[in-house]
Amino acid sequence: MTEQYVVDASVVAKLYLKDEQHTGNAELLFSRFEDGQLELLAPRIITYEVPAAIKKGADKARVPEAAVLGALDSFQSLGMLILDDSAATQEAMNLALAYECQFYDALYVLLAEDLGCRFITADEKMYRKLHRRDLSYAVFIASYQ
Fold first, then answer.
1. Tell me: the pLDDT tens digits for 81-129?
2. Which residues, listed in sequence order, are joined to residue 140 by a DSSP beta bridge?
């Protein structure tokens, strides 16, 4: 069986915001995904978070405006499995309260827990919160090799 990862927007955004740390790790992850070595999944919220990050990068001149639409097209054609998270509101809120994280972050964590797979993030603050709770399925992008 192919290894599965729930990937959050902070990791995917690194494909388009090249001035951030750990972009090489994110590129390696997606290279393995493209080669069929692993599966990448995410809740539907990622379809809003990544374009928002791309736009924010463009606003800060980190991504040239001319490249914004190309980055959006690239993101939309990545081929990750996007799962509906609309029925997970209550469970995600329970996790957000329990793990002291943002609600939208809890949607990713909940998906990883439901699927029994690893969750990979580039949000160091979020990772530290999960790591303190000994959630071994959480992976920080800097440690992905």
1. 999 988 889 999 999 999 999 999 999 999 999 999 999 999 999 999 9
2. 121
Sign of dihedral through CA atoms 76, 82, 87, 91? negative
Residue holding tokens 């001035």?
19
Query: pTM higher than 0.90 for the full model?
Result: yes
Residue spans of alpha helices (H) in the chain: 9-12, 23-34, 46-59, 65-76, 89-99, 103-115, 124-132
51-79 pLDDT, tens per residue?
999 888 888 776 677 788 899 999 999 99
> What are the two backbone dihedrals, phi and then psi, of residue 42, each rounded to the nearest 5 degrees?
-160, 155
Which residue from 106, 80, 82 is spatially nearest to 95, judged by alpha carbons?
Answer: 106
Show the domains of the chain with their CATH numbers: 3-143 (3.40.50.1010)
| Alpha carbons 43 and 87: distance in angstroms, whole number | 11
